Amino acid sequence: MDDLGKKQRDYAVYLPAVSSFYTKQLDKICNKVPEKSRVPAGFEYGNEGLDFFKNEQSYYHYPYGLYSAGHAHLDIAKSHADEPMIQDRDRNTVKVLLGDSGGFQIATGVMKMDWANAKDPNDPARTAICEKILRWLEHTADWSMTLDIPAFAAVEPLSSKTGLTEFSDTLDISLLNLDYFVRNRVPGATKFLNVLSGTDESTSKEWYDAVKHFSDPSFCAEGYGEASRALEGYAFAGINMKDLSCVLNRILDLRADGLLAGKDWIHFLGTGKLQWACFLTAIQRQLRLHDNPNITLSFDAASPFVNTAYGQTYAHNFFEPGKFGYFMDRAFDQQALVGSQLPAPFGHSPVMERLVMGDLCTMDAGAQDKNGNFKFSEGQPLTDKEGKPKLDDKGEQLYAERDSTTWDTQTYLYYMGHSVYNHITAVQEANRLADVENTREAVDFTQWKKPLKKNSKAGEVSPYVPVNIFLFRNFVETVLDPATTNAREIIANNKEFLTHLSMGGEDDGTKEEVLESFFEF
Predict the structure, then answer these.
(1) pLDDT band at residue 512 using 50, 70 and 90 as cut-offs
(2) For residues 510 and 507, what is the distance between their CA atoms, to the nearest angstrom?
(3) Cα atoms in the 13 Å half-sphere on the side-chain side of 35
(4) Rounded distance, CA 300 to CA 224, Å?
(5) How far apart are CA 429 and CA 440, in angstroms?
């Protein structure tokens, strides 16, 4: 078994944002209806081996992950019954499960809130949501996020649904939620991350100034009676997880306010770019050197699960100047491969190396899926579940425009398990290469020039690693050194450089998409 936790070293930690579909369906085929499930011949540990949290009898082990209250069973008994991968994990071998509080799902309507009364400190609907999420997080997670309302809830198309129209509306509700969490938490049950959000530098700073006190033990001792109620870490959200100027300015704020000491975790929400894995490693090393030797930076991405919904899979990773990421393309889904004993491609992963194509392509024309719908080949006349012809508005026979998918539920699980492995190894390989190649040639961030053309290789010094990774490492070694007295001035003077590196400023070749509904697949 490949134990990826042993390869983590001092890198920023990637947390797979585990889909509820993966956890619940894995439990279903392994525990609830195993007699209706299939087990590939190459799976010596059965389908149970797809639980990568296990460090024995699994196809690979990774001791980190993120799971969201926004998709979980908040009824703890039901969560234990249907999500044993999460609730029954061995907490001695799974180092960190981070619980997301579900603010995104509340803002988008997946979880319901009484928006008309949400700004009322005594609103029973809002406090009921806070209570349910708080108890689930305390029961489930090692580290957890407080419940913020993302700023995009106050802009269209969500504003017309939430009734929120100003940034201050989202901050006000978030502050009420923070008060509830700090006032009602059980200290020690889980460690909480104070969410720092915003939409630009100004609102990022406004949000920070409003919430920072909840991380101050003195403030919590005076206001809530116990210093132990202070929040133990931070989650960078909104502009703070994609704009490097904001990231560095907020870190300098935390240092200036004495709020890094004893704060052992900073998480960056929804950050899947491989270059950012190296950027965050560079920041983490400087914070460990100068502020807190125990601090860890982490980041999550749901890409391995989300892209499967598009019928895509991770094919390979690429490490080149200007292109540093993972290649995803259309997965295999051909009726000609049903029953095939051809070995599955992408055998670099311990999931795919155990499969043949017939394990992935399982339903031929004429088969019925779990809902009773028939599968068809291109050009075949369509029928309903009872075998009656499907007709158009004119009463004429309808025909299949393309072959039906050959995938069943388990196919999705196999592609997901493979893709999680690929994403983790991509992050670790990116950091390994960055460390090795950093010895090749010294760089100076002051010499950076914006490329004249996209994917230009001008100024590159490594055949494997984009020079921007080395330049940023050099930059944070200067800016985060306490001996640098003009750090904010350096950040301001290098805004173009940091914007180029930030999300939206440069395309590193990594495809990041979000399909929220897939988590309820």
Answers:
(1) very low
(2) 7
(3) 0
(4) 32
(5) 17
Q: What is the DSSP string of 273-331?
A: -HHHHHHHHHHHHHHHHHT-TT-EEEEEE-HHHHHHHTTEEEEEEEEETTEEEEEEEEP
CATH number of 11-306+510-520: 3.20.20
pTM listed for this prediction: 0.93
**317: how many CB neighbours lie within 10 A of its CB?**
18
Q: At what angle do helices 244-256 and 274-290 cross, to 10 degrees?
A: 20
The answer to whether the CB of 224 falls within 8 A of the CB of 266 is no
In 3D space, the residue among 201, 251, 203, 200 whose CA is nearest the CA of residue 479 turns out to be 251
In 3-state terms, what secondary structure has residue 234? strand
Cα angle 54-32-73, degrees, rounded to a multiple of 5: 70
304 phi and psi, to 5 degrees? -60, -30
Smallest CA-to-CA distance from 103 within 171, 156, 20 is with 171
Q: What stretches of 148-307 adopt beta strand conformation (E)?
A: 191-196, 233-236, 265-268, 296-301
**Residue 160: its H or E element:** helix 159-162
DSSP 62-119: --EEEEETTTS-SSHHHHHHH-HHHHT--TTT--EEEEE--HHHHHHTSS---GGGTT
What residues form DSSP beta bridges with 100? 68
Q: Which helix (H) or strand (E) holds 357?
A: helix 357-360
pLDDT category at 369 given cuts 50, 70, 90 is confident
Which tokens is 49 given? 């081996």
- Omega prior to 157 cis, within 30 of 0: yes
Among 171, 170, 165, 166, CA closest to 208 = 171
Residue range 457-479: mean pLDDT, rounded: 92
C-alpha radius of gyration, the chain, whole number: 24
Long-range contacts, stretch 26-32, CB < 8 angstroms, 24+ apart? 26/50, 26/51, 26/85, 26/413, 27/82, 27/83, 27/84, 27/85, 29/409, 29/410, 29/413, 31/84
Residues 6+ apart with CB under 8 A from 58: 1, 45, 48, 49, 50, 51, 52
Token pair 């055949």: residue: 463
C-alpha torsion sign, points 101, 106, 107, 109: positive
Mean pLDDT value across the chain: 92
Tell me how crowded residue 135 is: count the other CB atoms within 10 A of its CB. 16
Question: Using an 8 Å Cβ cutoff, are 479 and 469 in contact?
Answer: no
In residues, how long is the chain?
A: 521
CB 443 within 8 A of CB 461: yes
Alpha-helix residue ranges (DSSP H) falling in 396-446: 409-437
CA dist., res. 351 & res. 419, Å (int): 9
Q: What is the per-residue pLDDT across 183-206, written as a single tens digit (0 to 9) for each?
A: 999 999 999 999 999 999 999 999
